[in-house]
Specification:
The chain has two domains: 70 residues, Roll (Ubiquitin-like (UB roll)); 74 residues, [2Fe-2S]-binding domain (DNA polymerase, domain 1, Orthogonal Bundle). A hairpin with a 2-residue loop joins strand 1 and strand 2. By secondary structure, it is of the alpha+beta class. 39% of the residues lie in helices and 14% in strands. It is globular. The mean pLDDT is 95. The protein has five helices and five strands.
């Protein structure tokens, strides 16, 4: 049975088992490969997406969870995500880059819920995302920069 799913504002007709993890549906069925597989148990954050504005780990959530909801992936274009992409580039955040889609989605969630986060707020919000290269200081700096840009405009 085909199911409608809304990803980044676009409707998709999906024919897949409802227990299939959202991660694999997004990557393999829809073809959006920006969301990454990291650990498969929702611990590393590489697979982070927003579902109706809530941060979730897509590797451990069945795609049926997303039915009737708006899913935002790294390929999305929210205002906060765009500002964060620019600050990420300005601060030269990525090294290997593998975790960055999950980091950016988690930072988007943070800024949508806290317009002026402290270092502690950022550390707490980003604690579910692992960066093997250890760019945490640059991530924090980029989030502060994005918050400042957002608060100016």
């Amino acid at each position: 049975m085909k199911t409608n799913l809304s990803i980044n504002g676009k409707r998709y007709q999906i024919d897949a088992p409802e227990e299939m993890p959202l991660l694999w549906l997004i990557r393999d069925v829809v073809g959006m490969t920006g969301t990454k597989f990291g650990c498969g148990v929702g611990q590393c954050g590489a697979c982070s997406i927003l579902v109706d504005g809530t941060l979730i780990k897509s590797c451990s959530m069945p795609f049926s969870f997303g039915i009737g909801k708006e899913i935002t992936t790294i390929e999305g274009t929210t205002a906060n995500l765009q500002i964060l992409r620019e600050s990420w580039q300005e601060c030269n955040v990525p090294q290997c880059g593998y975790c960055q889609s999950g980091q950016l989605i988690a930072a988007t969630f943070l800024l949508e819920n806290n317009a002026n986060p402290t270092d502690e707020d950022i550390d707490n919000a980003m604690s579910g995302n692992i960066c093997r290269c250890g760019t945490y200081t640059r991530i924090r700096k980029a989030i502060h920069m994005a918050a400042a840009i957002k608060n100016q405009g």
